[in-house]
């Protein structure tokens, strides 16, 4: 009878230890689920923020590209004007030099 009583005590003790381990694991699972839920919400908010930043940067890049194209056009026009003015001045200088040499 003592053997059965000892065995019963051992089984009850092991069952209590298993129940305690189960409760600890269950609590860990619940805590981890809460943490993951929070991380998911935080990550989703960060994704939205980064997508907005990407959209803004894309828009800004498009605006800057258009501005660069406008400035490149302005530069080409200015260079053409400068070339034309230089040719006119070279011609005027040649005419002036010819007239000056006739007067001297």
Termini, distance in Å? 147 Å
Tell me roughly what share of residues is in helical segments: over 70%
Instruction: Name the structural class.
Output: mainly alpha
Secondary structure tally: strands: 0
Q: Rg from C-alpha positions?
A: 44 Å
Residue stretches low in confidence (pLDDT < 50, at least 5 long) are: none
SSE order, one letter for each helix or strand: H
Mean pLDDT: 92
Count of discrete alpha- or pi-helical segments spanning 4 or more residues: 1
Residue share in β-strands: under 5%
Apparent shape:
rod-shaped
Q: Characterize the largest beta sheet: strand count, sense, and whether it forms a barrel.
A: none
Can you give a write-up of this model?
The mean pLDDT is 92. The protein has one helix and no strands. It is mainly alpha-helical and 104 residues long. It is rod-shaped and about 145 Å long. The protein is 98% helix and 0% strand.
Q: What's this model, at a glance?
A:
The chain has 104 residues and is mainly alpha-helical. The protein contains 1 helix and no strands.
């Amino acid at each position: 009878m003592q053997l059965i009583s000892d065995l019963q005590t051992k089984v009850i003790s092991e069952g209590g230890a298993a129940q305690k381990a189960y409760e600890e694991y269950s609590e860990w699972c619940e805590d981890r689920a809460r943490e993951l839920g929070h991380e998911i919400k935080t990550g989703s908010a960060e994704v939205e923020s980064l997508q907005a930043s990407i959209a803004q940067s894309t828009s800004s890049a498009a605006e800057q590209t258009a501005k660069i194209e406008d400035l490149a056009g302005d530069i080409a026009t200015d260079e053409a004007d400068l070339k034309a003015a230089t040719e006119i001045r070279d011609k005027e200088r040649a005419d002036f030099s010819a007239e000056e040499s006739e007067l001297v």
